[in-house]
Design a protein that fits this description.
The chain has 375 residues and is of the alpha/beta class. It is 40% helix and 15% strand. The protein has 13 helices and 15 strands. It has helices spanning 19-31, 38-51, 62-72, 90-97, 116-125, 144-153, 205-215, 239-250, 252-270, 301-310, 326-332, 340-348, 360-374; strands at 55-59, 80-84, 86-87, 101-105, 129-132, 157-161, 169-170, 173-174, 181-185, 198-202, 219-222, 225-228, 291-294, 320-321, 349-352. The chain has a seven-stranded mixed β-sheet with strand order 1-10-9-6-5-2-4, sandwiched between helices. The chain has a two-stranded antiparallel ribbon with strand order 3-14. Helix 2 (38-51) packs parallel to helix 8 (239-250) and helix 9 runs parallel beside helix 13. The chain is globular and about 70 Å long.
Length: 375
């Protein structure tokens, strides 16, 4: 259902939610069992199987997944964590929240993820790095093989911020299975949604147990009952969210296939234009959670966004140049020029509408209006 304020508009994103999800949520609400039950366990098992790891721990958001992952690794004051410059601020915020220092590293143009060359240079300078947090931007894998190789050579943990990349893979290995831990989001703009929610994936059962304990008030379940071993958080996923997620996850392959088809249509429509389509490392490495193009240099993006909206097209920037946001700029003194690739990419990125209900006619209209405004 399209909210009244958006009727007649080509939406940026429409959650793919139908009668089956509504029925699943209704069944849970009628059951009277709303938290930490069978639905959450089933959802965790289904995600673990989908990603290809033995452990998955459901939490309240993708940010909670990142936060608890760093805590499970014992990261805190005096430690450093490498993060990319181009992402949602949560990626860096969780580093600050555990008392560690974010080490920002510029991105590469092809994947918009961590540049392995810049990462290697940063690792040679910063001696207290305990983890690397690569982001799979907009559903496309970073150069995760190179990143993991650099991390292993230095005995550094990898926490994949795979918030947007459920279903993406490189070879036989899925996003969320490359690192020490993987973190996913189920926000409404993600491919699979539970409204809000997140999950941690890992091959390490001890790490998984630490995440489970921390998400639920520090509670540890033993054969003798329960005890509380730390001052934990309340970052649990609800039963009705998990029930909704199970329905969504059963359709993951078809959801991703549809988004790749839409991306291919956009790429064809943008061919031979001054607008650069997103690139992928391979056919299976991008799920197109968002379709983010690069405008030609000098384009007035602010005016372009306004003009598109006036014509019934909802578009947006890509994501954020984190070091140039107010908090990080004020705290660490970052300025334009410190991260030149991100400076350029962040200024020219534009997200076009992409969702399951988008038609070819709508895509043609979006591209025609976009290119007309760039003339």
């Amino acid at each position: 259902m399209v909210p009244p304020a958006y009727r007649g508009m080509i939406r940026l994103m429409v959650p793919d939610v139908g009668d089956e999800e509504i029925a699943a949520v209704d069944n849970v609400l009628r059951s009277g069992h709303l938290v930490q039950g069978a639905q959450v366990r089933r959802f965790e098992e289904a995600i673990a199987e989908s990603v290809g790891v033995p452990e998955a721990v459901a939490v309240s958001s993708g940010t909670a997944a990142l936060h608890l992952s760093l805590l499970a690794l014992g990261i805190g004051p005096g430690d450093q964590v490498v993060v990319p410059t181009y992402s949602w601020p949560a990626t860096a915020n969780v580093v600050v929240l555990v008392g560690a220092e974010p080490v920002f590293v510029d991105i590469e143009r092809c994947s918009l993820g961590l540049d392995p060359g810049a990462l290697e240079a940063a690792l040679s300078v910063h001696s207290q790095v305990k983890a690397i947090m690569p982001v799979h931007a907009f559903g496309g894998l970073a150069d995760i093989e190179a990143i993991v190789s650099l991390a292993r050579a230095r005995d550094v943990a990898v926490v994949e911020d795979a918030a947007c990349a459920l279903g993406a893979a490189s070879g036989q290995t899925k996003a969320g299975a490359w690192g020490t831990l993987g973190c996913f989001s189920f926000h409404p703009r993600k491919i699979v949604t539970t409204g809000e929610g997140g999950i941690v994936t890992t091959k390490d059962s001890a790490i998984a147990e630490r995440v489970r304990t921390s998400r639920n008030h520090g509670q540890l379940i033993t054969q003798y009952g329960q005890t509380f071993v730390e001052a934990g958080f309340n970052l649990r996923l609800t039963e009705f969210q998990a029930a909704m997620g199970l329905v969504q996850l059963a359709r993951l392959d078809s959801i991703v296939r549809r988004r790749r088809e839409l991306a291919a249509t956009y790429e064809a429509l943008l061919a031979n234009s001054p607008v650069r389509a997103p690139s992928a490392r391979g056919a299976e490495t991008h799920t197109y959670q968002s379709y983010v193009v690069q405008l030609p240099s000098g384009a007035d993006r602010t005016n372009l966004l306004r003009r598109l909206r006036e014509q019934g097209i909802e578009a947006a920037i890509g994501t954020h140049h984190i070091p140039l946001t107010q908090f990080y700029s004020d705290r660490y003194g970052f300025r334009p020029g410190d991260f030149p690739v991100t400076d350029d990419v962040a200024a020219r990125a534009l997200t076009l509408p992409l969702h399951h209900a988008l038609t070819r006619d709508s895509q043609e209209f979006v591209v025609s209006r976009l290119l007309a405004e760039l003339v």
